[in-house]
Amino acid sequence: MTPSILQHEPRRIPAATATGIEQPRGLAFDRRAHSYAAAATVQRHLIDWLGEWVEQPRHANSKTALEVGAGNGLFTELLATRYERLTALDIAPRMVEHGRHRLPQVAWRTADAWQLGNAAQLPPRPSAPLNELGPVDRLFSASLLHWCEHPVEVLHRWRKLLRPAGRMLHAFYIAPTLPEWHSVVGGYSPVRWRTESQWLDIFREAGWHVLRSGTRAHVERFASAIELLRFLHLTGAIVPHRVPVGQLRRWINDYDHKFGHPQNQTGIPSTWTFLRIELGLIR
After folding, report:
1. Is residue 23 part of a domain?
2. What's the pLDDT band for 258 if we cut at 50, 70, 90?
3. Would 186 be classed as within a structural domain?
4. N or C: which end of the chain has fewer CB within 10 A?
């Protein structure tokens, strides 16, 4: 899953929509299940970086693992090479369908990551129905947690998903992310961008011990502001908040004027800040 700012069609400018998560949650990602994998260039950079901290098969084979917010399996593909007993969850049914087709050896389930741990809802054993559940050794997510509106509550519930010696590993986007766009639109964002220190405090408040963490700035370049918005649209996160077409055109023109240069053949920049973090339980 990925942050997004505006909905637009690749070849025309529609009545614009400022973006976030559509209701019901996961629906916009569901609609982009067919385009997500090909479009998700930024997400692949984050996944490659996160993968450096995933344990090797000789340490992983005996462990059970769960990936939440798995989408259609970009990160799952790497995890499946390390963990023989892997379950992948996503709220978007079409994403799960695509993932199951690509990686049939993984146990795929449709479920809301934010509700796991509620009323004893733990990740399912591959052969069990969703309500017959048990804890795992490893918990993963990629490009998910920045969407969480109430992270302390969710992360506290996730404690129930792990065995006592279990660990979890995540990578997601933190402040500053898309500062170029925010400078054009006046700071509006559907995501509450938190800093690294704020996230570390959140994890600790939720009862997690930070084993290691790090940040990385990634600059992705696009031919124009339209192409940036096309990327955001194809990776699926939109919200029904109408923006006048004229305003959208001004934002696009302002972005191109402010960050594009005729002599620069590499395109306009969009900056993303990644956080990767590995955690264990505080007992």
Report:
1. yes
2. very high
3. yes
4. C
Give the model confidence (pLDDT) of 139-167 as tens digits. Answer: 999 999 999 999 999 999 999 999 999 99
According to DSSP, the β-strands at 208-222 and 64-67 are: unpaired
- Tokens 């302390």 sit at which residue? 152
Matching residue, tokens 């997601």: 172
The tokens of 55 are what? 């344990």
For the stretch 24-58, pLDDT in tens is 455 567 777 777 777 889 999 999 999 999 999 98
Domains of the chain: total: 1
The DSSP bridge partners found for residue 208 are 281
- pTM for the model: 0.85
Give the CA angle between residues 278, 38, 83 to the nearest 5°. Answer: 35
DSSP class of residue 238 equals: -
d(CA 117, CA 125): 15
pLDDT of residue 28: 66
Is 1 part of a structural domain of the chain?
A: no
Q: Could you give the 3-state DSSP secondary structure of residue 202?
A: helix
H/E stretch holding 228: helix 225-234
Q: What is the CATH number of the domain that holds 224?
A: 3.40.50.150
Encoding tokens for residue 94?
């079409």
CA distances, 122 to each of 118, 130, 137, 160, 206 (Å): 8, 8, 12, 7, 17
Measured distance CA(49)–CA(197) in Å, rounded: 20
Looking at the domain assignment, is residue 78 inside a domain? yes
